[in-house]
Amino acid sequence: MNRLQGSSSSAKRKRELALVSDTLTDGERVLYNLILSKRDMGIWSGDMKRETNLPDHMVKKSLKLLQSKGMIKEVVNIQNKARKHYMAAQFEPSKEITGGDWYSEGSLDKELINVLKNVCVKYISRQKVVTRDGVLDWSRKSGVITAEVSNQQIEEILRALVLDDEIIEVKSTGYGDFENVPVGRVCYKSKSKGGVRGEPKDGAMSSIPCGVCPRINFCTPDGIVSPRTCVYYQKWLDF
What we know:
elongated, Arc Repressor Mutant, subunit A, 3 domains, mainly alpha
């Protein structure tokens, strides 16, 4: 659909709603205008009663009528599925309401998440290094993943795999296995593989807690901040 068609369709929809709106009672119009004002966030029926001061039976009757005329729709709010949440028909629920890309009809799509995790781990294990865009491009071209997946979703899956300690996140040096990846670009490699050619080796300070300590500049042998009294340094020594 081009912009002209989209504009025409939108204008037609507004005209239809205006005609239907003319048949509403005062109470129904007040309720509809309130729901319309909430746009893609919608509103809980309990809040409607509080904000409009309409009797409970009138709110229920008006909601049924507005739904039957296609002016509003009931949507699932993942933050409280037990509450009836309504939205004007022309809006799509915001991610705050639906839970985002990982939710389908109000439920977390665990199957899709697990499939993506397994596919990404297998692909990365066969590569030297990969980027987020590389994983996404491969998933689309290979046809392994039939669902529409976004850059954001792939990035979240890769981040989860790093936290799960299944893959390693590194930055390109531009050398060796990184020669086709811009310097500094975040890459991923399989943890099961050894060091990657061109990847900088960890320095001695990288494994010592001092290397990431925010108080390192104040640390002295006999000071308040000192290796002698640091519990993290002692644990590292014991390990």
